[in-house]
Each structure stands twice: as structure tokens, then as C-alpha cells.
Amino acid sequence: MELVAAGPGSQDRADSAPSGTGDGAKTAAELAPRHLSPSGASVFRQCPRRWRFRYVERLPDPPGEAALAGTFAHRVLELLLQMPAAERTVDTARALARRAWPEIETDEDFRDLGLDEEAAKAFRWRGWLAVEGLWRLEDPCTVEVHATEHDVAVAIDGVPFRGIIDRVDTTEAGLVVSDYKSGQAPGDRWSAERLDQVLLYAAALAELTGQRPVKARLLYLGQKIVDVDVDDDSLGGAVSALRGTWDALTAAAAADEFEAKPGPLCGWCPYVGRCAEGAAEVRFRDDAGRMRADAPALVTLAEAG
């Protein structure tokens, strides 16, 4: 089956529940998602309440500056790896960055950041450092690209899965699935859970094409590569976790009970003003001196009084 090129926001649209009847009430069918993406699964595991706000009520969850800088880097690398191998140089990447910049600069989420000229310059530099970091991990001229930025939609163990694969390479050993990361690389303790995303992409490719990738990788730009062999054990763990999340999500939708899971990340939740448990958690941590002063939720709660 041919892989289909993805458009902006594809994963969020896939995870969103179908539109309701407009009378305010939601049926179980209207609460349940059409598909589950790695990002949607991560949000639900983090906090089911946040998942409902984002994917059922479709409240805005704008990306922050770091996430948008990562989007810029992803776009440049997508364009770069579509070039003939010999042309994948740093100079080419610079030219592609200049070409891609207007896409970010005119994006509503970027405009909402309200960056002045100096801050916008720092943003571009942050994105460029992520792009340049690819050369610290590999020589893109040596990569045989099979696909870039492609949307896959397939049932995995009965779960309607959807995701966007950054890159699939062809190697002598077989296909290799890679995902770019512009944030801080995790320690070894947390690497296994992060690899579930690319393992699910590998499972999706195997379902779609009948060809199981041999390796799944996370490329932490400028830092390191975290990878895993794709075998029965690694795939089984990732697929089992996906199945468990889907079962819990559909059960929550059937009962319309999306519990809050208060914790440190409440300080960065855009819905904290709508969540009593989250607001209480932020205030408790702030009073105890355990909340970072730059947490956006502190501003939200201060404005709400």
C-alpha cells in the first residue's frame, strides 16, 4: 500500500472525536476517537482530562516556542532529505531554512508568541542549531531515503492507529524508521518508553507493506541516537501498551469519565483554569516552592484571580 503524504495537524485531526449534534451533550460514540496517534496516546496517559479538553472539546493547545522551533527544524530536514544525496550539505540546509522560514513566520501559533525582532532571531537560531545537529549524528549524503514525513493509518492489534513518520531509510539490512527530536535527550531510564513511538511506526509499516523494519531510531539532534532492534519482543511491548491505552480511552469515553491526574505538568497545561484539580495542584506546588516560576499556569491562575 502506498504511503500518503501528511498535512499539517493530521495527527490531531485523526485523534479528535467526531463532531457532535450541536446540542451540547456528547454520546459515547461522539466521545471516542476515530484513531489514536502516538501524541494522542501520550496525552491520555499523562492526563485523561486534558485529552478530553483537547480532542473532544477541541480547545486550543498551542505549541510553545520550543515545539515550534522543532517544527521548523523538522520542515528543513524534510526538504533536505528529499534532495539528491550529493546535495544534502549544510549550505543546502541553510538555503532550505530560508525557504521554510516564511511558513513558520506566517503561522498563527508563531504570531501568537508575540516575539520581538531579537526574540525572533533567537528562535531562528534555535531551530537552525537543531537542523545543524543532524551532522553530529550522521552524514545525510550517505542515507538512502525510502520516505519522509508520511502519514500511516492502519489497525494495529485492533487499534485504529495513525501517525506521521519523519523518515524511513533503506539499508542493506532492511528498512529503518527514524524520528527527529529537537528537545533534550532522556536518560537511559526513560529511553525505552520514548522508543514506543517509533516501534509503533514500524508495526504500522509492517501491517501496510508486509515488510517489517529492522530498526527504530530516535535522532536527538545534536546529541545522540537512541535505537532499538525491531523484533517480536520490542514490537509486542509497544503494541501491548497501545492496546492498553486504547481500551482505557474507550472505557473512559463510554462512561464520560475522564479523570484528572494532577502532577508537575499541570504547571504547563493550557486548561488549568478549567480544571479544579489541576489548579489546586499548581497552587499547592507554588506554595511549597516546588513550581518553576516560569510555569504558564501561574499566569493563568493569577489572571483568573
In brief, what are we looking at here?
49% of the residues lie in helices and 15% in strands. It is α+β, with helices and mostly antiparallel strands and 305 residues long.
Instruction: State the order of secondary-structure elements, H for helix, E for strand.
Output: EHHHHHHHHEEEHEEHHH
Q: How would you sum up the major sheet? A: 6 strands, mixed
Average per-residue pLDDT, rounded, comes to 90
**Poorly predicted spans:** 1-10
What do you see in this structure?
This protein has 305 residues and is an alpha+beta fold. The protein is 49% helix and 15% strand. It is built from 12 helices and 6 strands. It has helices at 10-15, 28-31, 38-46, 48-56, 65-81, 90-105, 108-113, 117-132, 188-209, 232-255, 276-287, 296-304, and strands at residues 4-5, 145-156, 159-170, 175-181, 215-220, 224-229. Strands 1-2-3-4-5-6 form a 6-stranded mixed β-sheet, with helices on both faces. A hairpin with a 4-residue loop joins strand 3 (159-170) and strand 4 (175-181). The model is unreliable at 1-10 (pLDDT under 50).
